[in-house]
Amino acid sequence: MSVGWKTSPAVLRYHEVLNRISDNIDCSIVEYTMFIEELSDIEDEYKVTAAEISLFQQLDNLSISSRIVILALNFTLLPSTEVYDYITRFDHVFVDDYQSFHDHLAYEVSNSSYKSNCMLSDGLLPVVKKPSTNNTSLWVFSDIGQSTVIYNISSISTVKVRSKLNEFKEKFKFEKLLPVNLRNTHEISSVLSVIRKHYNPMDLSGAGTLGLRQQKNGHFLRGTKPTFYLLRNDNLAACEAFLEEELAKLTEADSCFNDKDIAVLYDGDRKYRDELLEMAEKLLRIRNKKIAVQYTEDCRSAEWTAVVYLHRLTTGKIPCTQSDNSVKEITFSNTIPFLNQALSRARVYSTVIIYNYTPNACTYTDNMLSELRERTDICRIVDVTDLGIDIDSDEDIDDIDSDEDWNLCFQNTMLLEDLDY
């Protein structure tokens, strides 16, 4: 069981691997999906009921040889409690990336008027609450540090949702810690340790810490240093120029990477996601390359040798109750949680392109970047201001609005990097 689509990288990888187990065992994919944007006050119940019926029909129609089923969920709300009967048909249920259930449930409840049952409270929780009524073993795999909403859970979910999440967690009987990250090279892993360190205090509920276990530093295998480009202009042409140069470098004739080894990840609000996706796909069409372009939250459990990550820095404000019960307005950015998720997908090579970067906009982000600037042994940070352009001047910004000017700026930046490397 995994949150995602039937075409999500992790789901497709599971399907490929599990179908190799035996010629007599078939692994099938079942999808339960609903676009939260499609829901309205009047049609909520009808649409969710139709989606649930489709899910149950898919499960009923499984062939006898389908002894392994991958359930891809892009929606967790349910109109009934019948899902428990279907889950307990299986001897073993593995829930991968449980934090994604956590995130989806919080988001769906806060953005939909439909607030009834859900896959957690009416599907998974009864399995462990009523063990005498089923023979199903439940296995849960999670890294809460990969959650993109845990820091703000108190404002985007209800008390009922949080109580269900806590009740489920309390039912865990055995817990195995895997603190050493062996997916990534030493440099990427060490950068992730710094990011996680600064994610931990990013608690907007007022508790003071998220309680994340600190990841141990680094793999012993060495690789290239992750590079961070911080572009202070909000012009997408700047981001495109840097992405184009990265793609040229990764896909040149003598590159050691194949198309399947590379991914371009992006995130942000709907408007900016669409713009970044269109931009990346255009550049890949020009280069005639079939490289994965994925929304960050859709690539959980996936990995690539090389990752280029595109992110637009945005900020929000929320009243936060302090330890002395006073209320303070906190300005925050989602850069840290998304960066932690995206960068961990890269095994050997990674480049981060952050545009609309504004210093002093988010204390958590500033503190993280300050520490990374000092860690020249594991990463490189390149500010667009290194070009000698006064980004704070509107006149100068207007002077570099064209694609050609941004490409020239990029070339100058690369020259500065070569001198500093």
Describe the protein's architecture and organization.
This protein is of the alpha/beta class and 421 residues long. The chain has 14 helices and 15 strands. The strands form 5 sheets. It has a 6-stranded parallel sheet with strand order 10-9-11-14-8-15, sandwiched between helices. Strands 1-3-2 form a 3-stranded parallel sheet, sandwiched between helices. Strands 4-6 form a two-stranded antiparallel ribbon. Helix 8 (186-199) packs antiparallel against helix 12 (363-374). The chain is globular, with a radius of gyration of 23 Å. The relative contact order is 0.11.
**Distance between the amino and carboxyl termini:** 45 Å
Give the topology string: H per helix, E per strand: EHEHEEHEHEHEHHHEHEHEEEEHEHEHH
Contiguous low-pLDDT stretches (5 residues minimum) are: 38-42, 386-421
The backbone outline, from C-alpha atoms, is globular
* Number of helical elements: 14
Strand content: 15-25%
How are strands sequenced across the largest beta sheet? Answer: 10-9-11-14-8-15
Average pLDDT reading: 79
Q: Describe the main β-sheet briefly.
A: 6 strands, parallel
Total strands: 15
- Overall helicity: 25-40%
SS-based structural class?
alpha/beta
Key features of this structure:
421 residues; alpha/beta; 6-stranded parallel β-sheet; 3-stranded parallel β-sheet; 15 strands; globular; disordered C terminus
